[in-house]
Design brief:
With 150 residues, this protein is of the alpha+beta class. It has helices at residues 46-58, 123-129, 133-140, 142-148; strands at residues 7-14, 19-25, 32-33, 35-38, 67-77, 92-101, 115-122. Helix content is 23%, strand content 33%.
Length: 150
């Protein structure tokens, strides 16, 4: 069995107006989040993981926009329901945060096996919808991050 690598990305996709794209997980209906995903290989560099996950989960080509590494990492306990995906004894994941600013009319095409639906919400409402505290905290940083983005 190929185990998931306990190193992942969180990509907050947002518009210049600070509306945030949230996705509802197919395996946990009612759980809303930004794009997330683990590295495919230990050697895969984090920006590539972020670009790949954005493409896979939303159909958005992150290469067309500026993908910003926020130089922010979160270490969190992996929910017991998902630990079977990791090697025995792995209980923590390191998540690296990225931001991706896209135009408000960008087309979103969900991966149906991963997500049930999506919605764009003002950033504060999006943060309130997230089941993950680290995801909510990242979204709440958007106003400060946008001022320093390219």
């Amino acid at each position: 069995m190929n185990f998931k690598i306990p190193e992942s990305v969180l990509v907050v996709i947002y518009t210049p107006e600070l509306n945030v794209l949230l996705l509802e997980r197919a395996d946990r209906p009612g759980f809303w989040q930004s794009v997330t995903g683990s590295k495919d290989t230990v050697e895969e560099i984090l920006p590539m993981t972020a670009q790949r996950e954005v493409q896979e989960e939303t159909g958005i080509d992150a290469n067309q926009f500026v993908l910003d590494n926020w130089d922010l990492s979160n270490i969190y306990e992996i929910y017991p329901v998902w630990r079977h995906r990791y090697a025995p004894g792995v209980t923590q994941n390191t998540e690296h945060v990225f931001g991706l600013c896209v135009p408000k009319n960008v087309t979103v095409v969900l991966a149906p096996r991963e997500h049930l639906q999506y919605q764009w919400l003002p950033y504060r409402e999006a943060a309130d919808m997230c089941f993950s505290a680290s995801n909510a905290e990242a979204i709440l940083q958007l106003p400060a991050r946008q001022k320093t983005d390219h």
